[in-house]
């Protein structure tokens, strides 16, 4: 798996770079010491030679008259008395050699230099040792957990859920999904529910959701229509998007990708099973009043507000905490799942895009998303930013408070087109009772519901610059929840 294996490769490259840097520094220091010693010895030799030449010059530059005088005086036998002044004169005219640096000064320089070299080398050695140990520990831990691709091609992203690749061996059979129940259908294929093998007695069984996505390969018939080819390409891009984004991020309000199982004709994306279904089904059960009979869980207003806060926290993580920034592009109640504690999990990252650093927007090749949740600027220019997700989240807040979705027949009976314009008119007129969902009205939370409706209007402004950020929305909702 390229994304998972890239981490050790990058670490090895970093280690090689640091080792090279260490060798260069050591070589530079040794070269500097050698050049410094050679230069010092050369200067000393030149100094001694200069002194010798100077003394020789002074001795041989005696005027001829003194030489004649000395010759004449030697015949008189006074060589001994006259040699003394000449010797004293030469000695007095010879300059004194420069004073050599003291041993204490040289030793102090050597200590300082050795201390600097030792500090640099020790620091680099410590960093390299720490990186080596960290990489080895991570490789060992991931191998134990089975994080990397197995021989069968199964890639495990969540070892806490899928402890061994053998637990997904049934997906490698031709009829591996024949006995499984279908729990959902979407644009990319069916979703199945499966139980993982029980490792020991007394442990509660664990369930997973398996999304089957067809793929285009060499065995795909060539007589496919253009629409079918585009659909296969779209599904392939969705698989890559899921693996690049949610496959490597972890947050309590995001549904992580547990495993990826490639097959000759399809791909299997494995997730943790959410028994409470989606927010869409829960709100529909409340509207129909048959939550207990249909199996869907009913949502009181405190539960809906907690869902809103959780989705805002997950959105803040994608937009602010994660780098690069991730834009979901398809936020809607059907893509928000509820776990056992009714904690929301943002799911379906098939349309998600990573926003490169220093980019203000990303231009899409075609329009993607769900009608009613798409921001107007994205619909008009195909340019999307993080504020497009904020717009979609504002529509979700409106759905939580009103119980009505953009596709409801109710909006065909009113003058305003769509839930956003209708909600603006209701909030501005002050007739909030018209907007509050009958399933949660009169329970003592009307004041909180009105505040959430105002935040929904704030998030769905036509100008994206006037919309709040995901962090601001999370702060506002947290204050209401407290």
UniProtKB/TrEMBL annotation:
Keyword Glycosyltransferase tagged: no
Pfam families: Pkinase (PF00069)
Spans annotated as Disordered: 54-107
GO molecular function: ATP binding; protein kinase activity
Keyword Signal in annotation: yes
InterPro entries on file: Kinase-like_dom_sf, LRR_receptor-like_kinase, Prot_kinase_dom, Ser/Thr_kinase_AS
Assigned keywords, A-Z: Glycoprotein, Leucine-rich repeat, Membrane, Receptor, Repeat, Signal, Transmembrane, Transmembrane helix
Gene Ontology, cellular component aspect: plasma membrane
Segments passing through the bilayer: 115-141
Bias-annotated ranges (Low complexity): 83-94
Domain Protein kinase: 177-482
Subcellular location: Membrane
Signal peptide limits: 1-31
Membrane topology: Single-pass membrane protein
Biased composition (Basic and acidic residues): 67-79
GO biological process: signal transduction
Stated name of the protein: Protein kinase domain-containing protein
Gene name in the database record: LOC101779729
């Amino acid at each position: 798996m390229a994304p998972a294996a890239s981490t050790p490769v990058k670490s090895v490259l970093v280690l090689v770079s640091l080792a090279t840097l260490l060798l260069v520094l050591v070589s530079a220091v040794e070269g500097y010491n050698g050049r410094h010693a050679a230069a010092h010895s050369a200067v000393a030799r030149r100094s001694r030679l200069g002194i010798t030449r100077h003394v020789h010059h002074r001795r041989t530059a005696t005027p001829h008259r003194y030489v004649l005088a000395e010759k004449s005086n030697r015949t008189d036998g006074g060589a001994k008395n006259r040699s003394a002044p000449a010797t004293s004169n030469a000695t007095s005219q010879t300059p004194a050699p420069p004073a050599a640096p003291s041993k204490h000064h040289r030793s102090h320089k050597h200590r300082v230099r050795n201390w600097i070299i030792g500090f640099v080398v020790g620091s680099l050695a410590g960093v390299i040792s720490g990186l080596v140990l960290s990489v080895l520990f991570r490789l060992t831990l991931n191998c134990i957990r089975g994080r990397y691709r197995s021989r069968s091609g199964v890639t495990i992203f969540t070892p806490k859920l899928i402890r061994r690749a053998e637990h997904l061996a049934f997906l490698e059979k031709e009829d591996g999904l024949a006995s499984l129940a279908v729990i959902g259908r979407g644009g990319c294929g069916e979703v199945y529910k499966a139980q993982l093998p029980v490792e020991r007695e007394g442990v509660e069984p664990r369930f997973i959701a398996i999304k089957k996505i067809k793929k285009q390969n060499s065995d795909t018939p060539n007589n496919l229509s253009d629409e079918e080819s585009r659909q296969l390409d779209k599904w392939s891009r969705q698989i890559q998007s899921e693996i690049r984004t949610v496959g490597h991020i972890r947050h309590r309000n995001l549904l992580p990708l547990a495993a990826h199982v490639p097959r000759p004709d399809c791909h299997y994306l494995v997730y943790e099973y959410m028994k409470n279904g989606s927010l869409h089904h829960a709100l529909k059960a409340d509207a129909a009043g048959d939550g207990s009979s249909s199996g869907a869980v009913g949502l009181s207003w405190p539960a809906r507000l907690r869902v809103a806060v959780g989705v805002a926290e997950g959105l803040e993580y994608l937009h602010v905490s994660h780098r690069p920034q991730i834009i979901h592009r398809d936020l809607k109640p059907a893509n928000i799942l509820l776990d056992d504690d009714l904690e929301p999990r943002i799911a379906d990252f098939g349309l998600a895009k990573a926003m490169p650093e220093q980019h203000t927007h990303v231009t899409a090749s075609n329009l993607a998303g769900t009608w009613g949740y798409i921001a107007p600027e994205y619909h008009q220019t195909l340019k999307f930013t993080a504020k497009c997700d904020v717009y979609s989240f504002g529509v979700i807040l409106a759905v939580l408070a009103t119980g009505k979705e953009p596709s409801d027949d109710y909006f065909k009976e009113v003058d305003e087109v769509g839930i956003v314009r209708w909600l603006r008119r209701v909030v501005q007129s002050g007739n909030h009772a018209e907007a509050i969902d009958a399933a949660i009205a009169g329970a003592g939370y009307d004041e909180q519901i009105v505040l959430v409706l105002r935040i929904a209007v704030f998030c769905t402004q036509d100008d994206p610059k006037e919309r709040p950020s995901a962090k601001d929305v999370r702060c506002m909702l947290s204050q209401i929840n407290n």
